[in-house]
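Q: I have 465 residues here and want to know how they pack in 3D. Can you give me a structure?
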Amino acid sequence: QPGATKRHAVTVSYDATVAQLITELGKRLTGPVTLVHAGRKLVCPTDRLDELGIKDGMAVNCLKKETGAGPSVAASGPFVPPPSAAASATAASSLRADKPDGLLKIRKLNSQEHEVPFVPTMTGMGLKRELERLGEGSALGLRLIAGGKELADALPLAMQNVRLEHGAVVYLMRRDLSSSSASSSSSPAASGHVGSVDKGGARTAKFVGLRNQGATCYLNSLVQALYMTPPLRRGIVSFARSGAKVGGLSRALADIFHDLATSPYAVSTERLTTALNWGPVSRQQDVHEFWTLLCQRLEEEMKGSPQEPLVESLFQGRQRDYITCSCCGRTSSTHDAFQDLKPPVPYTDGASIAAVPTLHAALTELLLPEKMCGAEQYACDTCAKRVDAERGVELMKLPPLLALQLKRFRYDLKTHSRVKVNTPLAFPFTLDMRPFVANADAPTAGDHAVRPNAAMPPADACGMG
């Protein structure tokens, strides 16, 4: 406590939030307090101490909230201690007096660069203030990306979750600032938190969004959809709380789901990408690859637990792959499981189209039999020779939750590269899958009225993400 030269040893869990730390301090102190670490106010009550870089044995400054003269904290820089706080003054001056340890290269998207001194104890916001001084605009509108990770405003450069050293390249990006977030430098929004709270700090919005780490909009969309899937959400949270040895991915998802339900601010997905070792987050990636890896890792972590069949029971359907000989009519087939379907989006080659293609048409094309002829003839055991044949897929049973991954790429034979297909695709609110399922009237074939996730609210009600 600056000004009182008092120290309090507080015991909290490694993943405690700022609000929990303040509550624990309330048992020893009277009146409201403000916490400061590394020269920055801890303004978001839902931020976890471990994510802020606060570890065992570290000191956190505790200031009484007062009006008029006394200790003050600026959201844009280090706090100014009173003259009587000798210990705090020494710590604060050491932060400001550290000598540069080389240079950082700040590279903009147009390849222009700034070289700024690398001071290990300078915070992410301090580096942004330096760029603001160099004419890059408001520090609140800047984002700094290094090694695929966004630098945290409150952490010193030496404590970021990416190694920074002399000569390291940090990419400079910009964020859009609304008038509300730019109106007050001490507001949570100005510190990178977007949300809706009342005067007491309680959440007022029904939903909150997910922060973009750089180019993780595809990831955020998937995580929001999974959160809006109650059976999956409950299963993951139940597993994380079961007391069993829980893997990092399950814990990360459970924490994110909890924050989406309780936090008044937009939630970070950094713990998820860290658990999956997924990156770089500054580059757009394939959401289907992320979805596949996510399911595989969840199944691995839940193996041997009551939740082991969770992913399979929700998303796995059955299909039959078959080949029919055109000569003898013999059909050979195998049964397999599928976790999603990949209907192709029609390619129009820039030509105008009379009507927007539909999801129904895309599914029809997906299940059309393929001719095997010429060099790809089928070696029929019955005919004892290579013959023309038809190869195809039949859906035998749909899963409770059907995942559709639109195939929006085609192979260009001229350039020998993949080209994105930007054709619009219309889909109904309710999709009748009976034409696509073999023996659709059988009791084991499942429900064929497929609808968008019933728990998902209208798009304009979801906020960010």
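Q: Anything worth noting?
A: The chain has eleven helices and 18 strands. Residues 18-64 form one domain.
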